Amino acid sequence: MRTRRHAGIGAGLVALIAAIATGLSMFLTAAPQASAAALTEVTNFGNNPGGLRMYLYVPDRPAARPGVLVAMHGCNGWAQGFHQGTEFASLADRHGFIVIYPQANKSANGMSNCFDVWSNEALRHGGGSDPVSIVSMVDYVLQRHSGDPERVFATGFSSGAMETLNLLATYPDVFKAGAPFAGVPYACLGPAGCGDKSPQQWGDLVRNAYPGYTGARPRVTAWHGTNDSVLPYSMLQEEIDQWTNVHGLSQTPTSTDSPQSGWTRRVYGSGQVEAYTINGAGHDLPHNGMAAHAIRFFGLDGGGTTPPP
């Protein structure tokens, strides 16, 4: 097993959640979207053990069988702020997919509006808490808006990035891919902890989230800044170790390139897993232009799964 240091992670959930509030202001205010479509709250969307609120963005011209993207804010954030402060809605206007913005409500050490990625209920398929609530939101959109169940994806920042990988682990039958921005591996905040693990150990955690599942596993494109002072950059490699193992891939990338200045992308296997290193970036992702790469990875732009140049 390789050994790496994870400064600040071993202290556990309390210290980690306490730090996550930094760098979130970019998602609290932003210029309004140009589209006539509006963010709308949906109530009574189904089983909601997490007590979450659901906000929905349906573009003016949705596709006939629209894809569905769940986009999740960080701790101390708001669904409305993540909608306004990111480019997912404008991309939905362009490509016709639908965006769900869940509103988190969990607290830890005085921090608010965090997604549950640590309870026993949240860490297993059908267990309850936030993942079940979010799957109910997806089911609502698939039924009410004739969404395509083969094109359901998740993305998020910080706490939302953690929930992204949590959903991929606990509901691989629902989510086809995910794009965590500045997150940690699945189950990192649970009893297993965030300490150094082998790829096999990380992968086993995912497999144990849904015992008996034998279907396809979601693809992952993970992003992290080298100057992240909240969640160490080393967490990116742990995420890659976890999901390459889940897919049965080597931890050696098949290709490495630089899609933009300051970005390094490593591709594993035939593209099942990607890792984006953002040189000099802190705990403030996604930056402008990054959402388009995630959408292309998902195939929601109709152009396949090769990110734009």
Write structural notes for this entry:
The chain has helices spanning 13-19, 79-85, 88-95, 129-144, 159-170, 199-209, 234-246, 290-298; strands at residues 39-42, 53-57, 68-72, 98-103, 106-108, 111-114, 152-157, 177-181, 219-225, 255-257, 263-268, 273-278. The chain is α/β, with parallel strands linked by helices and 309 residues long. Mean pLDDT is 90; it is low at 1-15, 17-34 and 304-309. The longest helix has 16 residues, at 129-144. The strands form two sheets. A ten-stranded mixed β-sheet has the order 1-2-4-3-7-8-9-12-11-10, sandwiched between helices.
CATH class reads Alpha Beta
Strand content: 15-25%
Total tally of structural domains: 1
Share of helix among residues? 25-40%
Based on secondary structure, the structural category is: alpha/beta
- Element order: H for helix, E for strand: HEEEHHEEEHEHEHEHEEEH
What is the count of DSSP helices, taking H or I runs of 4+ residues? 8
Strand order of the largest sheet: 1-2-4-3-7-8-9-12-11-10
Distance from N terminus to C terminus (CA atoms, Å) equals: 36 Å
Biggest pleated sheet = 10 strands, mixed
Determine the mean pLDDT.
90
Write the layout of secondary structure elements.
Blueprint: H1 13-19, E1 39-42, E2 53-57, E3 68-72, H2 79-85, H3 88-95, E4 98-103, E5 106-108, E6 111-114, H4 129-144, E7 152-157, H5 159-170, E8 177-181, H6 199-209, E9 219-225, H7 234-246, E10 255-257, E11 263-268, E12 273-278, H8 290-298
Helix pairs in contact: 6-7
Main attributes of the structure:
309 residues; alpha/beta; Rossmann fold; ten-stranded mixed sheet; two-stranded antiparallel sheet
